[in-house]
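Workshop exercise sheet. Pairs work together: one partner reads the sequence aloud, the other fills in the structure field after running the prediction. Swap roles for the next sheet.
Pair: D.N. / O.F.
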Amino acid sequence: AKADGVKVRGYVSTVLGCPYQGEVPLADVVRVSKALHDMGCYEVSLGDTIGIGTPGKARAMLEAVAGEVPMDALAVHFHDTRGQALANILACLEAGVRVVDSSVSGTGGCPYAKGASGNVASEDVVYMLHGMGMQTGVDLDALIAAGNWLSTLLGHDTASKVARAAG
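Structure field:
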């Protein structure tokens, strides 16, 4: 891909816990993240794909990886299984990350992890960012409408608290 000029984004899953192995050694997360960056990935997304993280652990993980990979080449990806996704995102924003993965209506998820919910809802992330005075370029009302449409299409309730509050 690199030889052909194709930009590749790397992903490291289960950075804060694994449904099979349990706790994931921080050194492993750092090593894999650095390897992806060294291979030429323009960005490496660090995913708490079972939603087990807390703000302190998320920040410590990000700071450890940022010791080997430039912060501007890092992104974060949180699932909201235990209701910590927004707090984790805030902790990582405060640590310097500027790219956050999310999904409309909180769709997606981790089918191999017992009890895992979907990704953090984009509507909730954008609402938080706007409340912090950050410019996202995203029309929140249009995003909520898109999420409601998608939820109806998929036949499930939205996972977005912001969308539910908007009615």
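Discussion prompt: Residues 9-166 form a domain with the TIM Barrel fold (CATH 3.20.20.70). What would you look at next?
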